[in-house]
Amino acid sequence: MLAGRKILLIIGGGIAAYKSLDLIRRFKERGASVVPVLTKGGSEFVTPLSVTALAGEKLYSDLFDLGDEAEMGHIQLSRAADLVVVAPATADLMGKMASGQANDLATTLLMATDKRVLIAPAMNVRMWDHASTQANAEQLKKDGVLFVGPNDGNMACGEFGPGRMAEPMEIVKAVEDILLNGPLKGRHIVVTSGPTHEPIDPVRYIANRSSGAQGTAIANALAGLGATVTFVTGPARHPWPSGCKIVPVETADEMMAAVDAALPADAGVFAAAVADWKVTSASDQKIKKTKDGLPELSFAENPDILRTVSNLKKNRPELVVGFAAETNDVLENATAKRKRKGCDWIVANDVSPETGIMGGDDNDVTLISDGGADSWPRMSKEEVGHQLADKIAAALRG
Ligand code: CTP
Predict the structure, then answer these.
(1) CA–centroid distance, residue 358 to ligand 1 (Å)
(2) Active site residue 244
């Protein structure tokens, strides 16, 4: 099953494009959503209307459509998916991919994506056997592009040999292998993310500036390696990850209960910026201004989710990862925090306003473990997610 998975399907300009219509149906039957991109050549073989009707999603086809750019930039479009599938991948499209051309929407998306790319080549047998196509295929494999097919068989042009596009069910199988059989297959990981909101009254609350971007990137990367992810999120601005079980909560108490209910897990990644205090004097009705002066709020400490989980006697995940958001003496504070909380790893970062990290796109982290402190170069939150997911996969394996 591909429930909750998002596939960006690029349909190239070849006769096999008709099979891509069936492919969309097969993906959808398995619960995946398909965002279709039709190349100019592709639209000579299948109509935009049939593609949109089957996908039930907006069709993207032109790089310079300003409306689409405003709605969703091509960079974002290339990254919102779990996997990019090119079917059919023509000789021309493969050549452009191998040489790094980005002169239309499809090739631009293929260059901008940070997701894995699976291509289903389809072309005449002589074109497939041609030295330049073979060199391009070699280059694409080196670049990490995944292949399904081409198969041997009768071709639309009347010839016989390799070049036939893989059948839709073979492509589905290849996608399932990629998305569901990663190194974290069979592992359950709980990720907390976003801020919490602690109500003062029905209209006011205490919150913080966490956008949820880092937690989302980690959850996406873990799911991309095949983990079953329970994503417990406070009210975050960032869109939720795909392919995860989402548990939306508001307060720290609710987050604690949701994490508790999600256990057991093989690993826990606690990226949420949990409010340290809740308002015990929260009112059921809106607090009004009075002549008698300012309202008095009383506070109580919230449960420390990371510390609680790290110290569980039963059901403690094999690997517990916390975050340390600091504004000064980052390494010292984070090292002490790791001890205090009892977690295995701490991902430390400097969230002083001048770093632009809280609410920004990049992160600058140091991973503190038993082995010491490992400072990573500044990189995007998505890249931090991938690196951390790879390290988690290695730790759980070994
Ligand atoms: N955390 C948590 N529950 C809390 C507070 C924090 O699970 N009630 C987790 C965060 O998700 C993060 C780690 O603890 O993984 C550290 O969060 P941080 O806000 O940096 O630390 P605090 O515990 O709040 O410590 P301090 O306020 O002293 O910096």
Answers:
(1) 15
(2) no
Task: Delineate the domains of the chain, giving CATH numbers in brackets.
Answer: 6-179 (3.40.50.1950), 188-397 (3.40.50.10300)
| pLDDT at residue 199, as a whole number | 97
Catalytic residue among 157, 169, 336, 394: 157
Query: pLDDT tens for residues 181-202?
Result: 889 989 999 999 999 999 999 9
- Confidence band (pLDDT; 50, 70, 90) for 63? low
Q: What is the 3-state secondary structure (H, E, C) of the chain?
A: CCCCCEEEEEECCCCCHHHHHHHHHHHHHCCCEEEEEECCCHHHCCCHHHHHHHHCCCCECCCCCHHHHHHCCHHHHHHCCCEEEEEEECHHHHHHHHHCCCCCHHHHHHHHCCCEEEEEECCCHHHHHCHHHHHHHHHHHHCCCEECCCEEEECCCCCEEEEECCCHHHHHHHHHHHHHCCCCCCCEEEEEECECCEEEECCEEECCCCCCHHHHHHHHHHHHCCCEEEEEECCCCCCCCCCCEEEECCCHHHHHHHHHHHCCCCEEEECCECCCEEECCCCCCCCCCECCECCCCCEEECCCHHHHHHCCCCCCCCEEEEEEEECCCHHHHHHHHHHHHCCCEEEEEECCHHHCCCCCCEECEEEEECCEEEECCCEEHHHHHHHHHHHHHHHHHC
Higher pLDDT, 153 or 217: 217
Ligand 1 centroid – CA 304 distance (Å): 7
Q: Which residue has the least CA distance to atom 24 on ligand 1?
A: 276
